[in-house]
Amino acid sequence: MSKVYFASARAIKWKHDDSMPGKLERLLNEFDLKKYFEPEEWVAVKTHWGSEGAHRIVRPVFLRKVVEALKGIQAKPFVTDTVRIKGLDYLEVANYNGINHLSVGAPVVLGDGLYGNDNIMVKAGEILGEIAVASVIHDVPAMVVCSHIKGHIQAGYAGAIKNIAMGGVSARHRQCGWKCGRGAMHTLGEGKLSWDKDKCELCYQCMEICPLDAIKFKNDGMIWDENECWRCGRCERVCQSNALHLPKDDERFMRSLAEAGKAVLSTFKPNKVIYINFLTEIQPECDCMPIADVPVIQDIGICISDDIVAIEQASIDLLLKEEPLPKSAAEDKGIKKGDDVLFNLSLKPYHIQVEEAERLGLGSREYELIMI
Question: ∠ CA 171-177-183 to the nearest 5 degrees?
Answer without folding.
Answer: 45
